[in-house]
Design goal:
single chain, alpha+beta, three-stranded antiparallel beta sheet, 11 strands, about 25% strand
Length: about 210
Amino acid sequence: GQNVVTERARQAARATRGEILTYDGEPIQAVYFSSSGGHTASNEDVWTGSVPLPYLRGKEDPYDEPSPKHRWSTRINRRTLLQALSLHQGASVDGFLLGERSPDGRLMTIDILRSDGTETEIEASTFRTIINEEVEGNPLKSTWFDARRAGSDYVFEGRGHGHGVGLNQWGAHTMAKRGKSYREILSFYYSGVQIQHLGDTSSPPPLAEDPAA
């Protein structure tokens, strides 16, 4: 990535050297992603079992609209998708149903329909990972989508790109172009945080963890 490091980026790094984001005096887990689709997510709604963190709260995001992944649509061959799910399940899969959603609209669960008539529930993030690993082009940009069958394909229509927790890169880009400062950008995407110098902080808080593969 050295070819995209500009002098302006170096100046920004030097100007903010030693500054970190904190909540109640402790460093935060400053997770980020590409595009929110219009609403960010709370960490516990994305990573099952994670402790709700007060600075990682989902909120409406009016700055994401310029993102090329603000809205997206993709078609996936039905046989290819079902083969990917069958490999993961170790059993033949006939289809899937959209399950529970978080308050912002992202899917939390997917019901897998096995050929023997049984069903099993998996996390939507796991479903997304399975499909993206087996289908060329990483077609599922997020877990915020609807799906329907269209002949030999499944059609997915979704919003955003990435897990949706914390700072939205496209949103930050839009805010900066509109003249917002880095402090305003960070305070918008991380609720209730402060900017402190590294030496003024105590031990780190519990971290929001990525989902298991």
